[in-house]
Specification:
With about 200 residues, the protein is an alpha/beta fold. It contains three helices and nine strands; from the N terminus they run αββαββββαβββ.
Length: about 200
């Protein structure tokens, strides 16, 4: 039987109780925020409790909320890094967004949900690669999109647009080498040229 958004919220409150940090509904979507300490147990409950039955992990990604500190967002004073997952219940025909903040900005860590949903494997590796979020309990946590010699995590807000190093093949050394970036950052503003009579109009 399909859950309405209201029924989903009731089922979440009944199954999770005090482990819910925040439960929001907006634009027909439900977002559940939990603590890093409760994250793994909550995700297990979301899959296994028959009132919820979220059998599928559809997506998982990292988030860097540091830019929110510049505005008046309610997230401005919170932790910098979070992991956001999207779950699907085929049984109840509903979706859920789950957000967990890593408590340590310097070394963001959350539990891996790969033992619960094997689909999390490459999603967590991607979030580790691009944001530097460590998934504790992941059996093969290594870079996925950047190469092994890459320095830094390119989706962090403070990562420079042109990167830290560039890679090229050196014909003298006959191998690939890394060197400091030589590209000068610049802002390109397109010029709009207006001329009398342009396009045959007078």
């Amino acid at each position: 039987m399909a859950h309405t958004p209201e029924q989903l919220c009731e089922a979440l409150q009944a199954a999770l109780g005090e482990r819910i940090c925040q439960l929001n509904q907006a634009l027909g979507e439900t977002t559940l925020t939990v603590s890093a300490a409760d994250y793994l147990a909550v995700m297990q409950t979301l899959r296994d409790d028959p009132r919820l039955s979220f059998e599928q992990l559809m997506d998982l990604c990292g988030m860097d909320y540091s830019a929110y500190r510049d505005g008046d967002s309610p997230l401005a004073d919170g932790p910098r890094f979070a992991v956001v997952s999207h779950l699907l219940s085929l049984t109840h025909n509903c979706r859920l967004r789950v957000r967990v903040f890593a408590s340590d900005d310097a070394m963001p860590r959350v539990a891996s949900v790969n033992p619960i949903w094997s689909a999390a494997n490459w999603y967590e590796r991607e979030a580790f690669d691009l944001y530097g979020i460590v998934f504790e309990g992941h059996e093969d946590l290594r870079r996925l999109l950047t190469d092994y010699g890459f320095i830094g995590h390119p989706f962090r807000k403070d990562f420079p647009v042109s990167g830290h190093v560039e890679m090229r093949y050196d014909p003298e050394q006959k191998r690939v080498i890394y060197q400091p970036v030589t590209i000068e950052p610049r802002e390109i503003t397109p010029r709009i040229i207006r001329e009398d009579g342009y396009g045959g109009m007078h």
